[in-house]
Amino acid sequence: MTKTTQSRPQRWAQPFGSDMTDADVERLLNIPEIKAIDAEKFPLRIPLAGILRNDSRIMRYKSGDIVIREGDYGNSAFLILNGTLRIVLAPGLPGEMLGRKKIQKKNFWQVLKQLWAHKKSPEFRDVKQYNQKAGLRPSAEPGSTHVFLQDVPAILDSNRTADIHEGSLFGELAALGRTPRTSTVFAETDAELLEIRWQGLREFRKYDQGWRRLIDQRYRQNALKAHLGATSIFSHLDDNELQEIADNTLFETYGTFDWHHSYIKMQGHDRIEGVKDEPIITEEGAYPDGILMVRVGFARVSVERGNGRQTITYLGAGDFYGADELYRAWKGEMNVGLKVTITALGYVEILRVPTKTIEKHLFSYWDSGKRGGTRGGKPVQGSQRRMQDFFEQTLAEGALQEWAVQERFVNGTQAMLINLDRCVRCDDCVRACAATHEGNPSFVRHGKTFQNWMVANACMHCADPVCMIGCPTGAIHRSMSGGMVVINDYTCIGCETCAISCPYSNIRMVPIRDEDGEHILDQQNHQPIIKATKCDLCADQITGPACAFACPHDALKRVDFRDVTWGRDMEA
């Protein structure tokens, strides 16, 4: 039997920049910020020059071009080679200026009108509106387009900004932490930047002490302290105490940053259920050496059952575990071990706050009775408030929980969940969706099923929206109110980055048409122009999601998987 073989894919098979040359690399090696790096510290398989050639690219921006937008999810940092940029301070620029979609609720008459105002052709677009609203400027880099600001002097006059100059690094915290950008940065003058994707940034931090100190210092000062202060167990501490905790907290990462690629590849193959191939964060029975806090991503919580493991719940951003065990040990109980095994689902960032720090700043405070945070002599904490319920759940509830975690549906904050025992396949949900979107339904009524439950192929408006990473224009973004993941049709360039990145295949690329039903063609190559489309949660509808509103049998719900109690409230 003939076997198919191929070369094993290499890390740098797809360089970040398509046109990096030897001259570019040589030039970068001689700029002060890179020249200070000791190239000898890098292993032969990951040389400094290789990182520059394959994990970075030189980007050129014209005056007014937006480099990063507040609220976007990015996977790269920027080093200014020349030119002047501006960072917009609070309250920031309006969403429309950033290439975002302005959402306005329709009134009663507009809602009524859409019932009979169907377009004859699917995916109709009024092309006259694009030139007026797009605000796009093509870039020399293939697949890259910039949103630009029309009147930079007026923006400088009406907004608080600060300038950043040659040699400055920005965007690294959001890139490494997969968190939204906190500010908008645009080019005040024509500028040249070195864009470093997160893989290269990770290697700089790993092998060069200077970059590691710089990034860690910025993280502890700007991000970690704020994160700790927003957590319930540390909310009583002052700035100095929070800084002390931040200085002692360990920052750990598990899993793969671009987990959606491996997850998508895994879908067509048989999988072994459970935690076998997931990176272990901590194991059942291990000595608790601190509180584990999830900063980014999801972690599976499982316990040993017979010859295998059973998933009892999961931890998401803001959840923490370990205080109960630490508290019992602090009170004098002997041989206290962790009750669960915690493993990484995809990519997870963990903050490990050491035991000594917890004892100093929390347990005495909890024991004093100043905070209503104890129950039966034990601290009540974050996700552990429900942990005992998960230990006691039935086998059926546990199986559903296992499925939801295995399929990564726990990422969904507005998943379309259909009870197949109630659904009569009338398609009223699909027709209602089409009616609210000019005849174009934004979801497909099929999906993965477990027993009588189906998660339909509709955008879940994820807690960790990996579809937003890499969008060159920020066309796919979170709405400022409600947090829905929406697409601005005017700034979507049809690059397919979001559709490829979506782990659940919930974004479709469609050719758009004019009033006569003909495909709208690209002026350069005369190929049909395509756009990304998906569920927008009926953000402009006064009724909310039309699919759920129209279901005559109450078979369809929009659910946040983080709040679902399987088998207890799903029938309510």
Task: Tell me the number of helical segments per DSSP (H or I, 4 or more residues long).
Answer: 18
Extract low-pLDDT stretches.
Answer: 3-9, 371-386
CATH architecture of the largest domain: Sandwich
CA radius of gyration? 25 Å
Report, as a whole number of angstroms, the end-to-end distance: 56 Å
CATH topology of the largest domain: Jelly Rolls
Strand content: 15-25%
Q: Structural class given helices, strands, pairing?
A: alpha+beta
Helix content: 25-40%
The CATH superfamily of the largest domain is identified as: Jelly Rolls
Provide structural commentary.
With 572 residues, the protein is an alpha+beta fold. It has 3 domains: 11-99 and 135-207, Jelly Rolls; 232-392, Jelly Rolls; 403-559, Alpha-Beta Plaits. The protein is built from 18 helices and 26 strands. The strands form 8 sheets. Strands 11, 12, 13, 14, 15 and 16 form a 6-stranded antiparallel β-sheet that branches. The chain has a 4-stranded antiparallel β-sheet with strand order 1-10-3-8. A 4-stranded antiparallel β-sheet has the order 2-9-4-7, with no helix packed on it. Helix 8 (198-207) packs across helix 9 (209-229) and helix 9 (209-229) crosses helix 10 (239-248). Residues 3-9 and 371-386 have low confidence and may be disordered.
